[in-house]
# Entry
Amino acid sequence: MPMITKRGKELLGDPALNKSTAFSEQEKQTYGLTGLVPDVVESIDTQLQRVIMQLGHKATDLDRYIYLMNLLDHNETLFYKTIMSDPARFLPIVYDPTIGEACLKFGHIYRQPRGMYLSMDRRGHVREVLRNWPVKDVRFICVTDGGRILGLGDLGANGMGIPIGKLQLYTAAAGVPPGGMLPMYLDAGTNNESLLNDPLYLGMRRPRPKTEELFSFVDEFVEAVQEVFPDCCIHFEDWTGVDAMHLLARYREKCCCYNDDVQGTAGITLAGMINVCKVKGTKLKDESYLFLGAGSAGIGLSNLLCSALVEEGLTLKEAQARIHMFDVNGLLEPSRTDLADFQLPYAHPHAPMKLSDFAKAVDDFKPTTIIGVSTTGGAFNKQVVEAMSRVNERPVILALSNPTDKAECTAEQAYTWSGGKALYAAGVQFAPVSYCGKTLLPGQANNFYIFPAVGMAIYATRAKRVTDQMFIEAARGVADQVSGEQLEQGLLYPLQSNILETELKTAARVATLVFDSGLAGVERPKDVEAFVRSHVYVPQYE
# Structure
């Protein structure tokens, strides 16, 4: 056990140090624990058995989520031992899809603070607030303003569940040590009337400010982070689409930061497309793409995809010409006056089309791939899937919106309506589908394959900046770990059951790129993969 000064109840109340029933007899004597815990000495494996049994008594995944968060508040090591013991089982509980329900009810299921709550009322004092955090070597801050939580919209302070969950995935999926993680909610108010009228709402009860006022406060926050936590990477998460794009552009060359909705979503989708090309015997530049959704996720995905297409020999304009996009107001085309600056490269000449014309657009553009980041459940209806199947031998259907009821179509719908021809993945995990005697395996295009691996690479190398190339390399690293046999069954992503090993191999590839790019803050080791693995957190008592 590390050198500690806490004793008795104070020690038992520290989740990073508490072992509960696993304290040795000597530790009980040394730290004044005799009589404060049962007079046994259990292994962490025995404790895990008890956790699994207790979880089995819970009726719903939300109940299990609440239980696990309570466990984290009391025994961090046992929490991560549980999650990492069976990631395919527990990741959907601590994150997507259960996290969506948890966020909707966050103020109602709140037990105690985890992370920091920084409101705009603290303007001018952000540095002092950050110094209240007890850990001084913070390596990652995941920060949201709750403006666009998953596919659920403006959840204000209820969105704090997302930074908490995202940082848990750094550790559970890629072994990044949890001690340097700081979840943060930047409270800029909310425009959600139901929350403003909820007596249990935990945030400021005021409308969101103008963009200039918000960005001025974020400027102070970013500057303060670099001063108070100089080795910290800022992970922006679930901001509104326009803010997400503009804030990333504002800071990406000034500090170590990235936006998972923009770059992580892009990376995992690119990984799927790399494997689509393996199945079809094509290259990325041979494919064409039609998006439903042109916000931060859709544009970020398109931009990263274009970077990969340029690497295959296309010009940037040629790459952009392979992508057409719809948003809620229809096709992006030059006659529209409501487009954001970052949408303009994808506004190609064409007659105006409404959102309801999406199936017709499939016939017009004949895309090989449709990608849904619309948060509109069921938008890829039978007419759309059948149109894709008419113009493609192997239509690619990526229904990426989450939680589950926001998916543009289900796996069963995609396979059935396409006559079993579709290559399909979703943002949530769907069960295998039996079709005409064959078992088809839908993949989950979830960012947790990408951002924790990039995070581990940043952590190990102390990277000074985060680049798009790092996400492209992560995409390749993930894609290369799907076997030929799995590809034949339609699986585009590795199995979650071995996610730690998958992510460490991916992290090693990204770390190699960091060293090659001259962005590392440490000297290059002889064996980069061994170097990355030397930083892995293992949930065991010391």
